[in-house]
Structure prediction request, 454 residues.
Amino acid sequence: MHKKRFIEDGSGGRHSLAVTSPGRGTERAGGQALAVRPQGGRKRARSLSPTPRVARECGQARRSTRPCRVFFLLSLLCPAIAFSAVSWERKSSSTGDMPVPNDGQQQTCCVVFDIDKDGVNDFVVGERTRTPSVVWYKYNGKGWDRFVIDDTRLNPEAGGAFCDIDRDGDLDLVLGQDASGNAIWWWENPYPNFEKPWVRRYIKNFGGNKHHDQTIGDFDGDGDAEFVSWNQGAKALLLLEIPANPRATEPWKPIEVYTWSSGREREGFPSVPVDVDLDGKVDIVGGGRWFKHLGGTKYQENVVDDEMAFTQCAVGQLVKDGRPEIVFSPGDMDGVARWYEWNGKEWTTHELRDVIHGHTCEVGDVDGDGNLDIMIGEMGDPGAGDLARTFVWYGDGKGNFKETVASSGQGIHEGKLADLDGDGDLDILLKPYHHKTPRIDVLLNSGRRPASGQ
Prediction:
């Protein structure tokens, strides 16, 4: 089955997009196609309210993710749709708005959360060739001040997560090592006394190397958070229960809940875990797949698009009612970014555009209209060089998107949508990997500007 979808570009034109359902968009579990029928009609997806314990232990970056319907269906006979795009104010280390992380040129990881419990998001950046290897940034009302988390020489990989691991009321940091080693670490947040050091401990220090991407959530519905990481060197997806006394437990005990033997590496998790099948438990999404908890430590692989194994991803309610939608963007390669909609039997594929190393993939209500938007950004080196762009697709809640360019000329890697200045709207954290580094940019959301013709 093939359908037509249309998307407006920034010039006011519209492009037809091929949309397929069977094959690429067919959900498979253990290699078998699934035919899933909604019970009692089409369900409405909802934001899960975590248990009090998980809500305390695993806070999330403050961001507006209000549910919306974005159906992406437009007839050629429909009148032009008016969109309002956001104006952006660039803050940058290149103009003195914040210090650079260090003098290295391989800025790998980026994590956003409220470190000092002042109600405003902070962010962490890691770099793997110089010291300090891990730093955090705090907004000062005009720019950002930098503080050191770890001044030793480490090799953090892209990814990272946060959670109140030691259950003392503040959020701690987790990062994984790159292909040079087999470590995953967590750092104890010294709040409220940041004169004290961030104590680093091992979650993992054995087995396969490389841990590109981590996530934390209550994936089995037991009220406690679980830690999940890709382990590319072992070709495995690892799940680790947070121990009762994490300060005295090194390392933790990983369980391989999924492995692969050939093909591209798996990577990517959404910034916020989401309940894909509406069973009341958040699910693991990444590597072109999602994983359903069956009981105990058993998880069922469900293939959304096997071509999207080596990607970054996001999940959100792009279409009202039913399951949330999934977005995959080729992260460390060139290709077509797509979003996927569940039609009751299979995943329908919607193409967005060709991207060059689209290693940033997020969803959020950027323009504050109550509808989720999509952000995908291109790397610069490797990647698109000085032609690198960060795209935002604004949805109108009726199935139409307008593609805009929030930034051009600067590569972005592991970029984030989050409120970074505490004013209640979503900003863009624009961290490059190697392009024009060392460097950090923030695009502050200055509010909507009127759509053309209005």
